[in-house]
Hints:
Blueprint: H1 5-8, H2 44-48, H3 51-67, H4 73-76, H5 81-95, H6 107-111, H7 118-134, H8 139-149, H9 153-156
Bound molecules: protoporphyrin IX containing FE.
Amino acid sequence: xxxxxxxxxxxxxxxxxxxxxxxxxxxxxxxxxxxxxxxxxxxxxxxxxxxxxxxxxxxxxxxxxxxxxxxxxxxxxxxxxxxxxxxxxxxxxxxxxxxxxxxxxxxxxxxxxxxxxxxxxxxxxxxxxxxxxxxxxxxxxxxxxxxxxxxxxxxxxxx
Length: 159
Ligand code: HEM
């Protein structure tokens, strides 16, 4: 009676920021180096991706497709999809040289505890490809972007 069990067990409730709708994360150093690669040069890819708004649609759609994808949906449960949509957009925008800074965490730390396998990555990449197809991104441009992301697989896959 009258015992605050959360307090007894040191459980801290994480409340979404009323402004951003995101769940706060532990402090880390923000840097574009966390994005995992350097941006492409030139403006041709940004143009082909439909600028920032096109890139945002692709990032958000990739997250939505993955949340609904029975192969990998369980991995996303209990993670903050509001934050992921924002940070994934920032990362894509930064890498495509569309004028964003990436403020998220680095790829290795972020995915370290998820136990991701190659099959999980393949599923995510397929969802990204579908998102890009839906936005009618030219195939060669899709592949240039995927080539930017590919080397990150070594930081993401842990088993
Ligand atoms: C090259 C491949 C990948 C890239 C570029 C990537 C990118 C990102 C980025 C930018 C974040 C946000 C980091 C932050 O919150 O500060 C993130 C988080 C996350 N990623 Fe990935 N990711 C990749 C692969 C995957 C795969 C294969 C899965 C699962 C199928 C996955 C699941 C997640 C989840 C659940 C989070 C949320 C983490 C959290 O809230 O703690 N990612 N990823």
